[in-house]
Amino acid sequence: MKLLQLESVPSWLESLFASELAFAVLFGVCILEGAMLLRFMPSELVVPSAMALIGASIADVVVIVAVAVVGTTVGQFLLFRLVRRAGREYVVRKRWFPLTESRLERLDGWFDRWGGIAVAGSNTMLFVRGLCTVPAGLSEMDDRTFLALSALGSLSFQSILAGLYLLGGHLLVF
């Protein structure tokens, strides 16, 4: 087990999480995370860091998880729509996006095999978190279905992180 290291959180973000803007900042960070643009900290630290800095009462945790789910879902939906509009080649060419053609082919296989459940499943898993957004954007999946599956997977992921933080005495396993 590894103790949650708040040193992993950028100091400017730590001060914003401790301010009256904490929930707005959390929402913005989660949009970036959902859109695959969060580069200044691991996505696995967002909710636990927010709980450490904002609060870990039941009411705080419910709001933190809700804000995180809505934020990541908004970010993923923006990515979903970008992929739908710009296409496969655009995403693979962009340096900001963590996908090679071979990795995208593997994700296509998951999506072909599991359908929409791959969206929710990939949102729950470390290292592939949200990557099935791309094959979903390239498919015939409608917006509402994507939003529901994305939110379900994000709820699962954020709840697991919050639960590990609360049940583990502020210890996380990574």
From TrEMBL:
Any one of the GO CC terms: plasma membrane
Chain segments annotated as transmembrane: 21-41, 53-80, 146-167
Q: Which InterPro entries match?
A: DedA_domain (IPR051311), VTT_dom (IPR032816)
Q: Which domain of life is it from?
A: Archaea
Q: Where in the cell is it found?
A: Cell membrane
Residue ranges of the VTT domain? 49-162
How is it placed in the membrane, per its record? Multi-pass membrane protein
State what protein this is by name: VTT domain-containing protein
Q: What is the lineage of its organism?
A: Archaea, Methanobacteriati, Methanobacteriota, Stenosarchaea group, Halobacteria
